[in-house]
Amino acid sequence: MPALVASDLDRTLIYSSAALALTMPDARAPRLLCVEVHESKPLSYMTETAAQLLTDLGDAAVFVPTTTRTRKQYQRINLPGPQPTYAICANGGHLLVDGVSDPDWHARVTARLADQCAPLAEVQEHLLRAADPVWVRKHRVADDLFAYLVVERELLDEDWVKELAVWAENRGWTVSLQGRKIYAVPKPLTKSAAMREVARRTGAELTLAAGDSLLDADLLLAADRGWRPGHGELADTGWTAPALRALPERGVLAGERILRELLGAVRGA
Question: Are the CB atoms for 22 and 252 separated by under 8 Å?
């Protein structure tokens, strides 16, 4: 049976220039491959070594990109290696099969959200009313499933984020702060549920996962083995789990290490 590898993308496998964390002397910096262009500008990178590791991983396992990005945001990424048959977008709200959202899966997800948590419109209204225009730059809705704010981190009141988390918890939602974005996501909208569906369809008996944020925690717990980098929400809070390996590397070199570990686990299975 094939192994399934479900990995988060941003700040796990791919990195913006601000997140690269190139702390070594310039002459020793790794060669980088641009894997995302947005509005004619390079946006996300991985090391060339990581690109080869991902190519090898795609040949050896069912590799499933697993992201909170919308479908449109995901589809501007050009990952090296074989084109993935499956991809998980919008935090599990869309399961792409050969690039197309599976309508039955999406219908099941939206029915679950309607049944188990407060509506998106209520959360949107609260964010518009409660967030301070001093530090909010953009209000966004992702695929009519969840909301997020783009903020100025240096001006952000961290206590406000904690208060928002309490407010959201009482309505069946969760809050995650990732870089310059504050996400408000319905609790039933999970990457792990979509990963289990792909495992069911492919017959995978071994599931491996990687991620860096609170929104990846359920994915890491659901997998047989998981990895997280030395940066991000999970690292900052010291989050761990029995089958989780917490790596020390930070930035783009963490992405390379994660892929090396995933490939080793697949080949050793």
Answer: yes
> In whole angstroms, what is the distance from residue 255 CA to residue 80 CA?
14
Q: Left, alpha or beta for 90 (phi > 0: left; psi -120 to 50: alpha)? A: left
If one counts every other C-beta atom within 10 angstroms of the C-beta of residue 24, the result is: 10
Burial of 103 (0-12, 13-18, 19+ CB in 10 A): exposed
Sheet holding 206-210, edge to edge: 62-65, 3-7, 206-210, 225-228, 244-246
Structure confidence by residue, pLDDT tens digits, 145-164: 999 999 999 999 989 999 99
Strand, coil or helix: 33: strand
Sheet strands side by side (includes 32-38): 15-16, 41-47, 32-38
Q: Which helix or strand (DSSP H or E) is residue 208 part of?
A: strand 206-210
CA distance 5 to 53: 13
> Distance between CA atoms of 101 and 85, rounded to whole angstroms?
12
- pLDDT digits 0-9 by tens, 156-190: 998 999 999 999 999 999 999 988 899 999 999 99
For the stretch 42-87, pLDDT in tens is 999 999 999 999 999 999 999 999 999 999 999 999 999 999 999 9
E strand or H helix that includes residue 175: strand 173-178
Tell me the residue length of the chain.
Answer: 269
Residue type (1 letter), 137:
R
Q: How many CB atoms lie within 10 A of CB 110?
A: 14
